[in-house]
Amino acid sequence: YAKKNGRNQFAFYFDELNIGTNRGLLIDHELRRAIKNKEFVLHYQPKIDLTTNTIIGFEALVRWYNETLGFVPPNDFIPYAEEVGLIIPLSEVIIEKACLGWLALERAGYGHIPIAINISSIHFHQPNFIESIQEILQRNNCSPRNFEIELTERTVMNNEKETIRRLIQLKQLGFKLSIDDFGTGYSSLSYLVQFPLNHLKIDRSFIQLIGSVNEKQAVVDAIIQMAHRLHMKVIAEGVEQKEQVELLRNMGCDMIQGYYYSKPLPLEEAIDYVEFWKLEIEGK
Ligand code: C2E
Ligand code: MG
Ligand code: MG
Ligand code: MG
């Protein structure tokens, strides 16, 4: 197993995984146990609509704290789960937790805010993916219209016909769809236009440098203009500074997600954040 994402300091957990060694066995054992016990927690990061100045969604991001291993970041255990065939049961736990998250939002009076779930390519391409996600939602009294599915470019790039069929079906069921990490894969906007997408999320690596590197700004600007002409809304990911918000606003970017507004928050804090946001706006 080779590490796929280099930027994390905790990556050594799975980096030199030594499958077959004590440590490798420990991680494998702990992950299986964690899935069985649903030991994962979701944190929720708000997405802000720049036009209406409202929270238009939350992205659910999985967190795993294990007694023995400590905090293990998703960039490590998600690829590992994909590698060893555990991603589907893990993904099902995540979808179920996202349902519970939305139900809590609804009880707090904020059921109009949808929750976005990241779906691994492997799960998406399972023949029974749609049945499985529908079944979990139904079992939890949730409707697809309150959820958004985030897929990376890589996920929609292969197996074209079947992918389109599947995306259309999800859309018809009421799910919103977005393309995550746009710009890091190899697809073009003209390729993506055949999909019924609601949102295009520009990867953080482009946003990070828009204030300082003119070329990055030009690329982001071009993506926004073209996405709009293709009737997609654009979310900028990983926005950390006010200056970036202003640049993006001037470029016509629709929505912002990032530490500038908020880090991903535990459920209770996410609900408090909605309350806080409401008071802020009413106060103005
Ligand atoms: P992603 O879906 O692109 O999620 C965005 C990542 O950027 C999250 O990292 C988020 O915490 C982080 N982020 C958001 N705003 C900022 C910012 O302003 N600055 C910086 N530096 N980072 C920011 P996280 O939670 O560690 O997740 C990493 C990746 O792991 C996700 O990328 C996604 O690909 C995957 N992942 C996370 N949760 C899930 C899940 O429930 N299911 C699946 N299949 N994948 C997940
Ligand atoms: Mg995402
Ligand atoms: Mg992303
Ligand atoms: Mg990502």
From TrEMBL:
Tell me the superkingdom of the source.
Answer: Bacteria
* EAL domain mapped to chain residues: 24-278
Q: Where are the transmembrane segments?
A: none
According to UniProt, the name of this protein is EAL domain-containing protein
